[in-house]
Amino acid sequence: xxxxxxxxxxYNEKENIEKIIRKIFSLAIPLDVLIVDDGSPDGTGSIVKxxxxxxxxxxxLEERAGKLGLGTAYLHGFKWGLGKQYDYIFEMDADxxxxxxxxxxxxxxxxxxxxxxxxxxxIRGVNVVNWPMSRVLMSYFASVYVRFIMRIxxxxxxxxxxxxxxxxxERIPLDQIKFVGYAFQIEMKFKAIQYGxxxxxxxxxxxxxxxxxxxxSTRIFREAFFGVIQLKLESLFKxxx
Length: 241
What we know:
Shape: globular
Distance between the termini: 32 Å
CATH topology: Spore Coat Polysaccharide Biosynthesis Protein SpsA, Chain A
């Protein structure tokens, strides 16, 4: 078993799932992959099961009944990975918006002392490909808003490409994480900082999906907008130790 686990939540990703799995397994470092599939009606789970016959012991599948949300998928994966004693656990999208090659850089950053390494779109300007300007602006200013409200030094607070060392996930009370979309990503970073962990950003180039359908919605964005205020207010009355 590898010491690192890549968690990929899926819902209707049949166009991408086999390619992303094969790419990860082609990398120069050993990585295991856990797919958390929310009952994709397009057969994503079936494709993963077929690939498990080829990648036995490296590729795992957790199937859930229905679309339960990105945050809950990651929390499910975190607990699964902690139970299997992985030292490093990644969050990653299935659609190649995150370059699998950058998994190596994120892991190296943790090996060199970071407790949490974030693949950042905004640490060196704006590194986003194929997004309409409206979405670039929404995402960029969402991170500005988060930094202003929460007073955390993270340039890309909504990033979903992350490497955690296991001690971070063991320390954060996962059962108390309350958000599911963008706000989930913000909450995990905020709590890691509040608990005193070393959080580092690694510049990446984010490329929007070319196949499949985006899961972004106004509900997810609204949750993040108001969730930031809620998290900040709660932190004023909570001790982190």
